[in-house]
């Protein structure tokens, strides 16, 4: 490309100026205005719909720089050439400076801006490769309006400044482009015309570089990224995973890497859990007074050795992973520190729909009943008071009515009183938590009616203790009660030990009397020697239940 | 779960409480490698363990290059010696559907089932009770097949379909993102699609044919038959099937690790709709 020798130059000036006016009128988006009016209209937002009527205006011709859509390259060049001639030099210098800080340009726009700025730099030095730049920039798509607008914005601002100094700077002999003087380029443009092949290559590249209104990326960029990725990663057999790679690269455009300064929102729960569990670990290393207290109670530490039991369970193929067991151990330790606990045992894990439960079986120290029990009783008494009130009112109403409605003779079966704490099914207290590190919640005592109903229904646990249990027959209570009832049933039915491991505690009083009531407590038999494993495996006779079954009327009793 | 990442997978799937003892784990590592060599499988999966009264069955499956092709199933009682099981047929499934209760643990055990069959002798048509013997091996095959068809899970994007037909492991699968991992629609049944053709055109337009060629878990009946939980904060997502209790599928979001294991009694939870 390049200019034809100076001969045709004077000639195209008129047709080009004519063309420029045509072009400018044709176009609907003329931004720039002649200098005198620029200061008024520079709020550069008002881009749209203003057709510049000053076809011969310097700045109209400036916009022609960006009008790539019209005409074949050669004539365009001529137009440029002629119009460049008309542009004031001041504008160029200021334009040049104005082009540097344009971070808001989009990608394609950046290309255009870069080309344009290069172009202008060339203009100052001489127009050696200016038109080459123009040519490649010409091949950029026309819809790249936004980029152009941004450029215009900068240009407008610069024009503003330039406009103030315009008349004086034009006479500056250092400037080469004063309209009056420009009849020919300072030095001849000896760049030869592009070969057809080269032109085809450039056309193809321009096509690839085009971006659409909906997406600011060009195919060219995408392919560049894709190939770079493949070359960097060098996967085996890339052809077969080409589509996946393509999709991944596309996906990456819409999911930019987050700022390192900002927290990744998706990872927040991870970090929270980790913080909570870190607190678990730190508590275990209690310093100072805590240590002294622990030393005194070392003989009677309530926390069971979870790791040891987990080891044995693992040999059987049952159990949680070792780090989860350790965390449970830490959590139990935390529980022991918080509550006045005499003995503690990890009962197990119950899986739920949204969350799971970790259950700890606990016995309080003597006389350390929590106040919760009393509160519950008070509430019950208050409830009964209300009931009697209602009954009285009902009776009054009935007296007024002439027809006496027969009172039903049905009386609900007497409510089986629940067993007291520390006896029977409520011998142990149960604490649950959802995850090691979360606070432990105490489960209420179980009532016989709940066990009866629990035998009749089969429901999943959701993981939330206050969730209602919707079933038929209706279960009296929420999930916490259901959980407690199931725990009671499981414990009663499945706790076994080898024969002779436990012996019944010696009790004062007549054995005859005790025999009827059943034997409540058991303790480890110090004389237990252990039964060889083979005998244990052979028959079931060597295994016994050491807790008592729950009878149909839901009392502990011998079976 | 893949035999190559067996230890890690077992660790991640252990939240359900059932796992393997160390000696079994060690023997699995060696024996599965040998199985892969002997049978020339592309991938060997440790499918899981079916608990029997007397003994447990350990099941493994071998896959060829095409991931959705019918798999070969092997079982073992001691994790060392593996025997190939015959492929499941519909007759088998029908036959064994009458057998209820636990597995015995002895592959040669035969269940007896009395059926009323119409026999005609001459002109008389009468029903006679026929005792049908069903082998435990057959029952094993059909149960494994049912579990695979019903609840084998794979995350979306882990496999992709090429225009030439076979289905490959997607090596660029980076794992599901956290928001996707919590949704049931990002997990597929690892089997030939059944419901895909019933989708409306509008739904199909949103699908990507190279990735969405299997049924998703979203439309499983009964609704809610999957329990999806995040463990360890958001570091692990665990899906448990409620229809076949004992099937656990785990996936660590944003990583490639995923796998499923079945450890259970091999009984379908018929009471599921009442339990939800």
- Strand percentage of chain B lies at 25-35%
Oligomer: heterodimer
Taken in chain order, the helices and strands of chain B follow as HHEEEEHEEHEEEHEHEEEEH
Order of helices and strands of chain A: HHHHHHHHHHHHHHHEEHEEHHEEHEHEEE
Strand order of the largest sheet of chain B: 4-3-2-1-14-13-12-11
Radius of gyration of chain B: 20 Å
Q: What's the overall average pLDDT of chain A, rounded? A: 64
Percent strand of chain A equals 5-15%
Report the major sheet of chain A: 4 strands, antiparallel
Rg of chain A (CA only):
45 Å
Shape of chain B: globular
How many helix segments of chain B? 7
Helix content of chain A: 40-55%
Please tally the helical runs of chain A, counting DSSP H or I stretches of 4 or more residues. 20
Brief descriptors of the model:
heterodimer, A: alpha+beta, 4-stranded antiparallel beta sheet, two-stranded antiparallel ribbon, 10 strands, elongated, B: 276 residues, 8-stranded mixed beta sheet, 14 strands, 22% helix, 30% strand
Tell me what you see in this structure:
The complex is a heterodimer of chains A (559) and B (276). Chain A is α+β, with helices and mostly antiparallel strands and 559 residues long. Among the domains of chain A are: 197-253, no CATH class; 301-369 and 414-494, no CATH class; 495-506 and 519-558, no CATH class. Chain A has 20 helices and ten strands. In chain A, the strands form four sheets. In chain A, strands 1-2-3-4 form a four-stranded antiparallel β-sheet, with helices on one face. The longest helix of chain A has 29 residues, at 372-400. Chain A is elongated and about 110 Å long. Chain B has one domain (1-272). Chain B has helices spanning 6-12, 22-39, 90-96, 136-151, 178-181, 201-206, 272-275; strands at 43-50, 57-63, 72-76, 83-84, 110-121, 124-135, 153-155, 159-161, 167-169, 187-189, 226-231, 236-241, 247-251, 258-264. The A-B interface holds A 235, 240-241, 243-245, 247-248, 266-274, 314-321, 324, 349, 351-356, 458-460, 471 and B 11, 14-22, 24, 160, 162, 168, 170-174, 177-179, 208, 210, 224, 227, 229-230, 232-235, 240, 242, 271, 274-276.
